[in-house]
Amino acid sequence: MQPAPVVEFFAGLFRSAGVRVTDTGDAFTCHHLGDRIEFEDGVDQRHLDFVVDIDSSQVDRMLEDVRAGELDERAKFRIMAELATPATQAALARPMIRNRALRGVLYRIGRAESLMHVRLVAPPGEEDVAHTIVYADGQWLVIPGLHGSPPHEYRLTVSDAVLYQRRMLAARQANSLPPWIAFARWYGRFRKRVLAPKT
What we know:
Layout: H1 4-10, E1 16-21, E2 27-32, E3 37-41, E4 50-54, H2 56-67, H3 73-92, H4 100-108, E5 115-120, E6 129-136, E7 139-144, E8 152-156, H5 158-174, H6 177-194, E9 195-197
Parallel strand pairs: 1-4, 5-8
Antiparallel strand pairs: 1-2, 2-3, 5-6, 6-7, 8-9
């Protein structure tokens, strides 16, 4: 039960991702193989792009969406709402992005900031979700909800969030300085498009 549009939507969002079902204790790993997704029992966080914690009602809803053969905008939003925070946490915890030289590149070229509010804008029938990214004590923290008072926020549509995750994952997979510099240049342009004043 893996319709091509569903498999294609997840392409580039992860190579291997863990899922923990909080109310049942189940845990499994999803491996995206290009034309299909394979599932494996258990979660070994050392070898995963990120781990998502969801409950069984979210699993049931996802299965209903997959049975439909493709994902509508609300289904895509719900997926990205769950992926956004853990995927960002995992990406910013990688040794390469914690490198001082790379951090300098991201600040200078990409105009990254030490305190950011990121909002995923919901389609009708859903509620926006948001997280705060802060650089403190030599590490990046990603915290659900909005904390602190930056002068603006980043407002992403589902398409924006998917594009960002794919670009970030590609840079992570390359794991060398030139792709990260290319990512920083792209991010600088992306930032201008999604930046909005606080309301």
